[in-house]
Amino acid sequence: MSRLTDAVVLSQQIVVTATEEAYRVGHAELELDDLLVALTAVGGPAGDVLRSLGVTVDRARSAVAQVHADRLARAGVPAPPAQPRTLPRTGGGLPWSPRADRVLTAGQWDVRLADDRRILQDLVREPSGFVVEVLAVLGLDAERVLTALDAWVPTATAPAGALFSPDPRPWRTVTRRGWVPASPAEVWSLVTDPARRTAWDPWYASVEERADGVLVATLVGEAEGAKPVPPGFERQEVVPVAREEGRLVEWELRRPDRPGGEPVQRLAVALTSSGGGTRVDLTVRWLGTGGWRAAVGLLLRPVARLAWGQMLLAKHAGIARALR
User: What is the pLDDT of residue 129?
Assistant: First the structure.
């Protein structure tokens, strides 16, 4: 991916993760603490620094809860119970609170580096001192975090092998990389378990495994609050085509109710241990077309790549959410 694409992907991951955190604790707006937990949970430079200082997602959540309770206690107000809300399938976007919005506006990262360290720096320096109190609960002070941010050096984690299987057909390919705070074994167990497929793949309402190992999936539709699925497209066969135990799995997705059950696309998941968690490379491949459709497809290729990329981001968010 280009640096610009890296920056866009990282920003989307931060927003999605902060939104999930806000729903988890029942916030009506995305707050400073949602942003802090999101930075800890995604694979950007700020998360690298926080994790190097011993800040995990669970520890960050616990410290945030303690600071909220302490502030309420000082004001003589009992801490209310958390009222988590269910995240809508469509993502359920929330507005940023004024405090968080000011941090984001001031902390726009350097797009050339896909760098979110500026956001963490501005969180630490934010006038309310909330994040500084959270850091104190975690046994850290602002200066130590800021020094670590300044000293951060990128360490590229190369995938352990190919991101997908070889195939001579004219596939178009889009890959999106992400990071999740779980071991490769945990991620592998999730993505290869048919019973857990709907926990991370937002496109499927149900999945059944046949005796031959092929999964028969029903796509989400009106019953799940999504758009209607055209006739003949309601089901997909998810056919395993490659598997390297613990590292790479790839499926070909077919439409069994269409003439010939022609291939739709391939989806590959490649895992690499990285930074106390797992680098997850998701790759989608789809077949090009010939004739006049090829000319139209060439014009629309940037749009298609964007759409496929957004699909991969949604799947990555599902994997991360299922393991947090």
Answer: 95
